[in-house]
TrEMBL record:
<dbReference type="InterPro" id="IPR018934">
    <property type="entry name" value="RIO_dom"/>
</dbReference>
<dbReference type="GO" id="GO:0030490">
    <property type="term" value="P:maturation of SSU-rRNA"/>
</dbReference>
<dbReference type="InterPro" id="IPR000687">
    <property type="entry name" value="RIO_kinase"/>
</dbReference>
<dbReference type="GO" id="GO:0004674">
    <property type="term" value="F:protein serine/threonine kinase activity"/>
</dbReference>
<dbReference type="GO" id="GO:0005829">
    <property type="term" value="C:cytosol"/>
</dbReference>
<dbReference type="InterPro" id="IPR011009">
    <property type="entry name" value="Kinase-like_dom_sf"/>
</dbReference>
<keyword id="KW-0479">Metal-binding</keyword>
<dbReference type="GO" id="GO:0030688">
    <property type="term" value="C:preribosome, small subunit precursor"/>
</dbReference>
<dbReference type="GO" id="GO:0046872">
    <property type="term" value="F:metal ion binding"/>
</dbReference>
<keyword id="KW-0808">Transferase</keyword>
<feature type="domain" description="RIO kinase">
    <location>
        <begin position="67"/>
        <end position="283"/>
    </location>
</feature>
<keyword id="KW-0547">Nucleotide-binding</keyword>
<keyword id="KW-0418">Kinase</keyword>
<comment type="similarity">
    <text>Belongs to the protein kinase superfamily. RIO-type Ser/Thr kinase family.</text>
</comment>
<keyword id="KW-0460">Magnesium</keyword>
<dbReference type="Pfam" id="PF01163">
    <property type="entry name" value="RIO1"/>
</dbReference>
<keyword id="KW-0067">ATP-binding</keyword>
Length: 285
């Protein structure tokens, strides 16, 4: 069943399957793999019905199994998270249907979608794998990869919401659930591929958005600001995308500003004073 689309996987997922997936998510900080006997007991299920459901979930790629101390034990997968979030966004009438993949990065997969008025939207599915989890383990030692993935989706959604509410240039957030964030689709190209006529104007739009994030969202900075995370359209309007690593660290703020200034200086010979820009973004000038 590996060639199924996400929408098809959602369609073949049963009510009991959801119950199990949600249970696995709820228990994430207690066990990575939950013993089958614990599932049976906590969910009060018959052995046969659990077996059928687990088979269907495994075929659908939603769970993985392993033996822990000799007992069959179950964990949710990224696909399992995608199924739960898609179902919830659909039943809350945020996402009507899904389209093709726009991009697949290290920590996310971005799909086209449609809302219930048939507008094109974007759904971003976060997935922090075990590899990046290990790298970040120092900061999150009591969190597993499911929790980190869910935190990323929430952080991205909350950053978009605050910045949009304060008139910054980001895609309007439409909703979030589990590991997915639904947002407005912005038709444009990444900044590194654009040929700008008004680079100063575009840079001001980016810095203005950073200032809004800092001033009105409690000192927030993007955390991965670069020419890859800004989209530009034909009128040279922009949105800053990709906010899951947004944080309130001053060192990160300085790195974010330096990286974007460096790009404009190299590419368009736009010269700005770092100290002045820093003061502007912080709202001191
Ligand atoms: N709101 C959006 N509108 C249009 N395209 C988007 C939108 N959000 C993301 N994309 C596309 O998906 C790609 C990846 O998105 P991004 O949020 O940067 O995730 P990541 O870098 O983690 O893969 C972007 O480079 C862009 O092409
Ligand atoms: Mg990106």
């Amino acid at each position: 069943m590996n060639s199924l689309t996400l929408a098809e996987r959602v369609a073949v997922t049963d009510k009991l399957d959801y119950l199990i997936l949600k249970y696995l998510i709820d228990k994430r900080d207690k066990f990575e793999y939950i013993p089958k006997s614990t599932l049976l007991r906590d969910l009060n299920l018959g052995e046969k019905e659990l077996q059928i459901s687990l088979l269907r979930l495994a075929k659908n790629g939603a769970i993985s199994k392993t033996k822990v101390r000799g007992e069959d034990s179950i964990s949710i997968t990224f696909t399992g998270l995608d199924i739960v979030s898609t179902k919830s966004l659909h039943s809350r009438k945020i996402v009507k249907s899904l389209g093709i993949t726009i991009g697949e990065g290290k920590e996310s997969r971005v799909l086209f979608g449609y809302d219930f008025n048939d507008n094109t939207i974007v759904v971003k599915y976060h997935r922090i794998g075990r590899r990046s989890y290990r790298k970040k383990i120092d900061n999150f030692h009591d969190r597993n990869w499911v929790s980190m993935t869910l935190e990323n989706a929430r952080r991205e959604y909350e950053a978009l919401q605050c910045i949009k509410n304060n008139m910054g240039y980001v895609p309007s957030p439409l909703g979030f659930s589990t590991n997915a964030v639904a947002m407005e689709y912005f038709e444009g190209v990444p900044l590194y591929r654009a040929e700008l006529q008004r680079p100063d104007y575009v840079l001001d739009s980016i810095l203005g958005t950073m200032r809004i994030a800092y001033k009105y969202c409690g000192g927030l900075t993007h955390g991965d600001m670069s020419q890859y995370n800004v989209l530009v359209n034909e009128n040279e309007e922009i949105v800053v995308i990709d906010w899951p690593q947004a944080n309130r660290n001053e060192v990160t703020l300085l790195k974010d500003i330096s990286r974007i200034l460096e790009f404009f200086e190299k590419q368009y010979s736009v010269e700005r004073d770092l100290e002045e820009v820093l003061n502007y973004v912080k709202g001191y000038s």
